[in-house]
Structure formats: C-alpha cells, structure tokens
Amino acid sequence: MLSKREEEFIVYWEKNRDRNKKLFYQLLVGLPAGLLICSGILLSLDIDWYQRANMVANSEMNPFILLIAIVAIAVFMAIFYKKYQWDQNEQRYKELLHKKNQREGVAE
C-alpha cells in the first residue's frame, strides 16, 4: 500500500512531467540556482581572498569575457540542475508505479 504522500506525488507527476521536461521551462525555473552559483564566483572575485590571483585577474581579465562566462555558467547550471531534478522525479515515479502495480497484482 502506498502512503498518501506517494499517491499525491504520482498524481502530481502524471500531470506535470511533460511540462517539466521542456528545455525552456527548465531554463526559467533553474536560472535562480545558476545565478546563485555565479554570484558565489563574483563574490569570490570581489572579496580578495587570494590577492595574487586577484592581481592577475585585474591585469589580464576582459570584463566582457567574464560576463559571457558568467552567463554561460548560469545557463548550464540552470538546465543541468533541472534535468537532474527531472530525472530524479521520473525515477521515483517509475519506482512508485512498479510498487503500486506489484501490490495490486498480489492482492488480486
């Protein structure tokens, strides 16, 4: 017998699995996580925790290249994070369906 929470997850995932799989949706929903990681990178550049690396970065770094790199990291992490989360939910959904079908097969 599945718990109430597991039954609710099955119903939720049946309704939302196709929407959550779309690339544009994954980008929009995952972008805050990607930007959070990029803010950590920018913060580490700003707080001067390693002075020599900071001096080299200030003398040789092009701000435009840094901006492109930050955007690329944010987009990659956003999509990667949401794809990973979708895979985890899909795996859980399949396991719960298998468990449900196994229980119903034994009961019959």
Query: What is the alpha-carbon Rg in Å?
Result: 22 Å
Which stretches are poorly predicted, pLDDT < 50 over at least 5 residues?
none
General shape: elongated
β-sheet strand percentage? under 5%
Question: How much helix, percentage-wise, in residues?
Answer: over 70%
Note the gap between the termini.
13 Å
Q: Number of helical runs?
A: 4
> What does the largest sheet look like?
none
Mean pLDDT: 89
- How many structural domains? 1
Total DSSP E strands: 0
Oligomer: single chain
Secondary-structure-based class equals: mainly alpha
Q: What pattern of helices and strands is seen along the backbone?
A: HHHH
Key features of this structure:
mainly alpha, about 110 residues, 4 helices
Topology:
Elements: H1 4-21, H2 23-46, H3 51-60, H4 63-107
Helix pairs in contact: 1-4, 2-4
Structure description:
The chain has four helices and no strands. It is mostly helical and 108 residues long. It has one domain.
Compact description:
This protein has 108 residues and is mainly α. It has 4 helices and no strands.
